[in-house]
Amino acid sequence: MNNESVFSLLAFGDTGWGDDLLAGAWITVQLAAVSLVCGLALGLLLAGGRLSPWRPLNWLTNTYIIFIRGTPEFLVLLLVFFGLDLVVQQIAAGLGIQSSFEVPKFAAAVAGLSLIFSAYASEVFRGAYLAVPTGQIEAATATGMSAGQVFWRVRLPQMWRFALPGLANLWMVLLKDTSLAAVIALDELLRQAKVASESTLQPLVFYLAAGAIYLVLTAVSDIARHRLELGARRGYAR
Question: Are 15 and 207 in contact (CB under 8 A)?
Fold first, then answer.
């Protein structure tokens, strides 16, 4: 295959697949961003459960984290996708509603990736929580701050600084794990590359193009991570 034919395959418009790949990349970014937000919120709650002195809550969160971390991510996504459909249909049947409603693929992918991300993020948050010097908490309490004020004004900003490197690494993994959504036919980047390769019988061209786009996304993410870490360390000795 010559360069001209490669460029024609990756061109924009009706003659090429370039716009389809970029559309898939945009869905990939949206999927990763929404899953990140949901996963961070759930991960923080799970970390609280892990640190809770209440045994039933501690046991429940530990069980969840062990299950997610011990199960292939591909399988988790399939379980969520088909499980959500089953739950919705059972609820509708219980209400006497005949419905063929299907959970949107994007929502199912967000749910699955958020569950996976939260299990790992909870460990990062737990470590960051324990890394905050006890003396700072005691000093804040001695000034008359309430427990909520100590958490929001002292502990959480410190936790962010300690957790940021680990969370940034998890974001990189999450960004690439969005490719798992191809199995439920969500038109993210990898699926678009797969469809293009099957239509043109040129898999190498499109998978290399998809790889290049993933590389750009991770490179941009790494630059953002570096800037966030510099901001989080501002005012601290290096």
Answer: no
Q: What is the pLDDT of residue 84?
A: 81
Q: pLDDT (tens digit, 9 = 90+) per residue, 119-160?
A: 999 999 999 988 888 888 888 888 888 888 888 888 888 888
Q: How far apart are CA 205 and CA 82, in angstroms?
A: 33
The answer to whether the beta carbons of residues 43 and 122 sit under 8 Å apart is yes
pLDDT > 80? residue 221: yes
What CATH code would you report for 25-188? 1.10.3720.10
- pLDDT grade, residue 161 (50/70/90)? confident
Q: How many C-beta neighbours within 10 Å does residue 3 have?
A: 7
Among residues 148, 178, 236, 202, the alpha carbon closest in space to that of 26 is found at 178
Domain boundaries, the chain: 25-188
Angle at 122 between CA 35 and CA 116, to 5 degrees: 40
Nearest-CA neighbor of 187 among 221, 210, 212? Answer: 210
CA nearest to 73, candidates 124, 23, 39? 39
| CA gap 113, 35 in Å, rounded | 6
